[in-house]
Amino acid sequence: MKMTTENDKYKKMMKILRNSKPDLNQPEEIENEVIRKIHFENQKSGRVSDFIESLFGWVYIGWVRRSLIGAAVILVAVFVYQQAFIFKQVKNISKQVVITGNETAPVFSSVLDKRLTLYKISTRLSPGGEINISESQLEELLDSYNNLQVKYKDLIRIIEENPELEKYFENKLNQEKKYKPEI
Amino acid sequence: MIEKELIEECRNGNLHNFRKVVEKTTPMIFSVAFRMLGDEDAARDIVQDTMVTIWQKLSRIKTADSYKTWTYRIAVNKCYDQLRKQKRQKESRYDDKTWAIISNHLSEEGITELENKENAQIINLLTNKLSPKQKAVFILSELEEIPVGEIAKITGMNRSAVKANLYYARKNIESLLQKYL
Questions:
Q1: Last residue of a domain, one of A72, A94, A116
Q2: In this predicted complex, what is the ipTM?
Q3: Which of A112, B38, B77, B82 has the lowest CB atom count within 10 Å?
Q4: What is the CATH number of the domain that holds B93?
Q5: Do B106 and A12 count as a contact with CB atoms less than 8 A apart?
Q6: For residue A164, what are the domain limits?
């Protein structure tokens, strides 16, 4: 009997609630607001979606399109990272001094130029840790090397200006070549 | 009932026709949202958000036949989110006045219609102890009269889970009615 009363109350309550459909006041307000929001959202996402659409518009299957967009983003990210890494390496290389056998060493035109070369050489030598010399020693070495270069250029100029001297040196050099054993 | 042709045209981006879809869909979303949240303003917000989401994702539904289930699903999910926020904001409490209203209506001979405010108060009171899932199943089944199979699709539960949740919700409400009336 008790169960029946409980059940009756429940059934009647449900009937009342079912009958009482919630009243929606001014539904046109909601409609206008929805359309306004859609316009706003369309404007906001228009540029991005147009770009994506122009790239992946040919793919109609949703998950394939999403996968392609994901793959494209990853590839671009990898490319950017790679470029940044390469740029960093190139920048690092450009700081280092590379002197090949055929090149003549630079003659320092200013103190700044000299300091810069000192810095480049010291950064190049230090990572290996094989040669340890002080900055003053390195400076002394560069000075003497620079002087030697200047004197060498002067000597060449003097020889070129005097044809007899030039001939003499040519002969001497040829004679030396004759006595040199071939390896 | 919304015509399939109307949905198909909207899927092709026809915003003018979508206004008609909004007009026809709004009452059913509002009814569920209002009953689940017990708040008119919150229910109106849910309707707006749901309609915007529908427009954005309309191309994803496979057939126009599944439109109704799909719409309910979006709305119910948005209600879940709102209920979680509400739970954090305020703890609901028992209300003697509302029990008096229920008692009056049950003692009346005929079936009366409730106004929005009373309706919300009563549903909130009866479903206070239910989890969001139980509440959703109860409202969809008992008040919106949607079949169990469709509720399973809307809520993402299997049929037996829907039935179990409904059984628990009914038992809970029946025991409340017995205890306080």
A1: A94
A2: 0.86
A3: A112
A4: 1.20.140.160
A5: yes
A6: 104-179
Identify whether residues A121 and A168 lie together within a single domain.
Answer: yes
Residues A69 and A52: their CA atoms lie apart, in Å, by 8
Q: Is residue A105's pLDDT more than 60?
A: no
Query: How many domains would you assign to chain B?
Result: 1
The structural domain count of chain A equals 2
The percentage of chain A sitting over the pLDDT mark of 70, rounded to a whole number, equals 72
Could you tell me if A53 lies within 8 Å of chain B, comparing CB atoms?
no
Query: Hey, which bits of chain B come out as E strands?
Result: none
Is the pLDDT confidence value at A2 over 60?
no
d(CA B152, CA B132): 15
Reading the block at residue B20, the tokens are: 């008609």
Per the structure, the complete domain to which residue B77 belongs is given by 4-180
**Paired tokens of A23:** 């009243």
A161 touches chain B (CB under 8 A): no
Q: Which residues of A are less than 8 Å from B102 in CB distance?
A: 13
Residue A80 has pLDDT above 70, yes or no: yes
